[in-house]
Amino acid sequence: MKHSILRPAGVTAVCATLMCLSVSCRKDLCYDHFRKASVALDWELVWERDYGHHHEAGWDESYHGFSYGYLSPAMPEGVTMLTYGQDPMPTETFMGVEGADVNIGEGGTHSMLLYNNDTEYIVLSDVASLPVARATTTSRSRSSLKNLQSMHPDERSVNPPDVLFASFVDGVPEIGIHEKEAISAKMQPLVYTYVIRYEFEHGAEHVALARGALAGMAEAVYLRDGVTSEECATLLYDCSMTSYGAVATVRSFGVPGFPDEYYGRTPRSRSDRVYSLNLEVRLTNGTIKEFLFDVSDQIALQPRGGVITVGEIRVEDSENQVTGDFNVTVDDWGDAEDVDLSVGVEFQDK
Description:
Blueprint: H1 9-21, E1 35-43, H2 61-64, E2 79-84, E3 91-95, E4 99-103, E5 110-116, E6 122-125, E7 134-137, E8 140-141, H3 146-151, E9 156-158, E10 165-172, E11 179-189, E12 192-202, E13 207-218, E14 221-222, E15 232-238, E16 240-241, E17 245-252, E18 276-283, E19 288-294, H4 296-300, E20 306-314, E21 336-337, E22 348-349
């Protein structure tokens, strides 16, 4: 007759535990063989940099019609992190705006590039190579800008960029097995806002529609360090009519070729650059009128957002006279847009 040996369940569990503790963790047997970076994100939600104008301290809400903080960007919806290591392509990871624990893998030192991924007009290029990874924005054309384009013949006309933040973390050493490394990343803005005021001396009541363009601004920004490209672009945008004339809040990468001192660099003078401002109005009788302004001095002193003001704009009463039947439409007022949002690189997902 065979005899079975009965052991209490607790004894069996203890034996199994002791067996596990008697051997070291093997990679092929471990179900959680990780090397984690605990990434915490700190957001700098500002819309302009102070280069001596002290807009925040002297802001007049009754003059502008809104508070200084009204222009501050909202917290983005999500973040993409690209991890660069020994592989030829970076690894792409998605996380929330607070950060996340990320398995960055093995293979020596890593670098990380983070940016918000909830943009509509931002186009990323060359992200497989850190030194040249950059952001541009989509093309937009306006057939009526011949005068402005003759002054800036080599510029691409574009949509203003979306709010964009980025952070670069370099030289993260290889994290040990079953270890977690705390990493802080400061998400700094790469896009800033200009408040553009068109102040009318006479005839604002004759204007039915208004739109503008700002030429000479940076076409792109490099994600690694926040430096803008040397290429220039013309930003196209719509305006709102006010009691004093027209206003627009226009996002931009800032001035071209500018090393931002907030990224540990010293700004250099760009007094040789020309920045031009356009205003195009459609009067209530259907007539279209254009104004051009040189705003080089104002932009040069406000390379990363600020307030641009032009005045003494006039629409004479005689220019808005009605002769016969007319019908104001917006059929020939719209712009043509190119919304190709391709990044142009494939990633490894983790």
